[in-house]
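Backbone-to-sequence.
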């Protein structure tokens, strides 16, 4: 693998030694924050293994097998006492692993999500060229070639690829030793300086500027970055970052190195490709003219009476009375009906309401002139008072929070996306500074006779509440056996049983997604330890199941001894090892399953209690859930949680809200406007490049990338209106 195609292998090898962890502690933190952690290291022909629990080794490092490969595998389960939500975000892992494959050409990364069965293979022979093409997949390139520039100096290796598109925004990603530097740094400064200088020099020397009369129309760096997609990847032996999160590079010598390499190689490319060079420079000239025209248009609008001045606020704005900017909030509300309810329920002192009629313009595909011709957009600009685009001045904003409040349906989601697109394209600084929020109106209202209405925001919260209500005065009973009184569970014991069943249910679902039923796997249970097998071993045409590493190790050793004991034919050479033919599949969810099965055993139940059983010749149920005089028959423990929630819903009227207009002013105030009760989600820009990529896919002109996105994420949709 050579990530620097223009350099010799010896030179490339010199720079691949540069690396960087994210925080300098790596697996140590993962280990101590994990319920359990396993590390397998293959080196020198052997596999070494060690296990830990919450950072503490459970035994010494062991030699557990042979291997003709090298590498390290770390397997861990986040500690649920620290991380209540242990679900990994597929998209975050997908983007990071794909980036690593782009940055290291020739490396093959297989990303398999056993939760869903999804599998992706990342392997890119052209490295950053493929990276740029992928970033531009949802738009049209301005020129066919992806320009690649590589070089090295003073121990620093530089790799840059760029291509212009028909878009109006720049999309530049920079990396140092594979670390994504969100805030750029000296390598970014060197690149920008070289780009502007080289393109301007070419424009002047080629007489492309001869018709420019006004010097203000000569392209600036900002103009030359309009529509630019670029990836900058450098390898630095001793990087100095600003801040612990390593988002900005501080090595001063890197700026000059990047400036020189990019400048020289870009100039050479432009001379060798005059048609592409002319396209790029002319795009910068058009961007400069558009910049000047937009500046004049904004000036005219500002000067026009009543447009953007505080004295000419939009007529439908219901403003607040306070002048304390940081306390003031502007609610952008979908529709006049919801706007009326919001106006009646707001806290007038510091909450302003601006109803929006229908879906606003998709500004991602619109010019500034078309954007400014849209009534709803003009209303928002006027209400906020801080300008937009290049003239955005947050010191002039009229509100500390801008809150998007839409219905919980498809149209509401679309309007919310259009509004976020507007802020991203025209008021990026407002987003970056954390002034934009999304209101979370409740999904449900629970009404019970003689009690105050209760509002629920998520399905998960609804399930918890129904479980808590269902547990009140509930008793779980095992019918009497001969000579016995029968077991009964209530109070804290019942709560413990439900918690165990919740954990079991998630692990069982994960196992079933592999195509392994609990009933089938229970037949493989170890009779001594009552554990289910964690390791599924394939050896030639043989299959074996093992519950722990010791038994797996013994299997390896048996293979070795059998090979050594096998008689050899005349002139036959002995085979060193047949362990390479062994394939092991670890069922990580079974670890969680075994943990909860142990808890279940302590409560008096075995794994068969989770499985339905044939009960012919009897009218009695296997178990009963009793509340007062009422008793409900249950055939296996997996039915218990559903039965409890069903009992919790009795005597309750549940309303699911789809629109803000379904709530009156008092309800809207109590649930969505009152700071003591409401839930607001702050819109953050942790990964601006990923956000830009998503906006291009969802709001751009190309249909195919949008269709692929919808098909890939279709099963993740919740609360779909059909």
């Amino acid at each position: 693998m050579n990530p620097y195609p223009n350099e010799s292998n010896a030179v490339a090898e010199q720079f691949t030694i540069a690396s960087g962890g994210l925080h300098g502690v790596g697996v140590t933190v993962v280990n101590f924050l994990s319920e359990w952690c396993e590390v397998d290291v293959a080196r020198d022909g052997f596999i070494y293994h060690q296990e830990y629990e919450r950072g503490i080794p459970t035994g010494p490092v062991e030699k557990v097998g042979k291997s003709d490969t090298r590498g390290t595998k770390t397997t861990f389960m986040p500690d649920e006492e620290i991380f209540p939500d242990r679900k990994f975000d597929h998209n975050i892992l997908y983007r990071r692993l794909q980036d690593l494959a782009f940055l290291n050409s020739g490396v093959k990364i297989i990303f398999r999500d056993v939760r869903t069965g999804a599998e992706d293979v990342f392997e890119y022979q052209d490295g950053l060229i493929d990276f740029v093409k992928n970033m531009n997949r949802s738009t049209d390139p301005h020129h066919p070639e992806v320009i690649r520039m590589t070089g090295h100096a003073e121990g620093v290796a530089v790799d840059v690829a760029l291509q212009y598109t028909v878009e109006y925004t720049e999309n530049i990603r920079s990396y140092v030793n594979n670390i994504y530097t969100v805030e750029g740094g000296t390598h970014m400064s060197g690149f920008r300086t070289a780009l502007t200088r080289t393109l301007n020099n070419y424009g002047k020397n080629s007489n492309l500027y001869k018709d420019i009369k006004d010097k203000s129309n000569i392209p600036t760096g900002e103009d030359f970055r309009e529509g630019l997609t670029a990836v900058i990847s450098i390898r630095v032996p001793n990087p100095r970052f600003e801040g612990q999160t390593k988002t900005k590079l501080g090595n001063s010598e890197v700026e000059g190195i990047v400036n020189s390499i990019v400048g020289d190689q870009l100039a050479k490319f432009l001379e060798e490709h005059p048609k592409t060079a002319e396209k790029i420079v002319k795009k910068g000239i058009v961007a400069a003219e558009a910049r000047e025209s937009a500046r004049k248009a904004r000036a005219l609008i500002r000067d026009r009476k009543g447009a953007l001045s505080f004295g000419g606020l939009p007529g439908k704005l219901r403003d607040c009375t306070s002048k304390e900017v940081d306390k003031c909030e502007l609610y952008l509300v979908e529709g006049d009906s919801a706007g009326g309810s919001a106006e009646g329920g707001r806290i007038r002192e510091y909450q302003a309401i601006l109803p929006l009629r229908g879906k606003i313009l998709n500004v991602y595909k619109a010019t500034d002139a078309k954007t400014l011709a849209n009534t709803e957009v003009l209303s928002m600009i006027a209400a906020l008072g801080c300008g937009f685009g290049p003239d955005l001045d947050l010191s002039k904003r009229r509100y500390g929070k801008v809150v998007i409040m839409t219905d919980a349906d498809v149209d509401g989601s679309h309007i919310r996306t259009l509004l976020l697109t507007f802020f991203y394209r025209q008021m990026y600084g407002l987003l970056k500074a954390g002034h934009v929020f999304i209101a979370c109106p409740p999904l449900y209202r629970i009404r019970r006779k003689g009690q105050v209405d209760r509002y629920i925001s998520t399905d998960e919260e609804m399930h918890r509440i129904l479980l808590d209500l269902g547990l009140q005065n509930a008793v779980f009973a095992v019918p009497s056996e001969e000579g016995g009184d029968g077991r009964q569970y209530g109070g804290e014991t019942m709560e413990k049983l439900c918690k165990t069943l919740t954990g079991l249910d998630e692990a069982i679902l994960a196992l079933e997604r592999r195509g392994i039923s609990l009933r089938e796997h229970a037949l493989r249970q170890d009779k001594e330890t009552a554990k289910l097998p964690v390791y599924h071993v394939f050896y030639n045409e043989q299959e074996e199941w093992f519950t722990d590493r010791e038994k797996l190790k013994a299997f390896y050793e048996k293979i070795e001894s059998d090979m050594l004991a096998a008689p050899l034919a005349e002139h036959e050479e002995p085979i060193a090892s047949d362990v390479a033919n062994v394939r092991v599949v670890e069922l990580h969810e079974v670890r969680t399953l075994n943990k909860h099965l142990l808890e279940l055993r302590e409560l008096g139940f075995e794994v068969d209690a989770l499985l339905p059983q044939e009960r012919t010749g009897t009218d009695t149920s296997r178990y009963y859930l009793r509340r007062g005089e009422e008793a409900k028959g249950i055939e296996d423990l997996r039915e218990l949680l559903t039965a409890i929630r069903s009992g919790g819903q009795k005597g309750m009227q549940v309303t699911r809200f789809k629109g803000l207009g379904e709530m009156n002013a008092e309800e809207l105030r109590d649930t969505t406007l009152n700071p003591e009760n409401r839930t607001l989600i702050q819109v953050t820009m942790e990964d601006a490049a990923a956000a830009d990529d998503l906006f291009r896919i969802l709001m751009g002109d190309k249909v195919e990338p949008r269709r692929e996105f919808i098909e890939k994420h279709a099963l993740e949709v919740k609360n779909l209106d059909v």
